[in-house]
Design a protein that fits this description.
The protein is mainly alpha-helical and 164 residues long. It is built from six helices and no strands. It starts with a helix and ends with a helix.
Length: 164
Amino acid sequence: MKSWLSKWRISAALDAGKPLSESLQRKIAADPELERFAKRTQVLGQNLRSLPPSGPPLHDSIMRAVRAAARLEQPRRAPVLSWLAASGAVAALAALAAVCLYLTFLRTKPPGRQALDGPVMVLEMSENMPASMPTLVMSPLSDEWARMDHDLQSTTQVLLASFP
């Protein structure tokens, strides 16, 4: 990490045209990697500054290439494929709607079922209610009471066993 920070400081100083600080020069002298980086960066900076500036022809040719690449990247979809996909989706939705309509409205009711089957079943269950309801209501409470009694007995045994 320190090496990266030192490299950044070298690069920033050379870009700005300022001399390197004394602490940075000491780090460069102590580290061969930083020394190689400083020399290479100086040589690269001098070579880039000695190049003549690029003129408008270079800019124009680059922009032409970029525009040509952008034009080629736009994919053209065949209209036939999009129409086929859309018509297939519409046909599937229509078939699904037809099946739903058939299942809800046109399906015949099974024979032998009467309209009063539900109320008859409720009346038959109500006859058994007085006999079965107390056990159904009290069953969870009695189960919980039995568990609590078992826990109390276990606690009593543990406490009595701990006394000498």
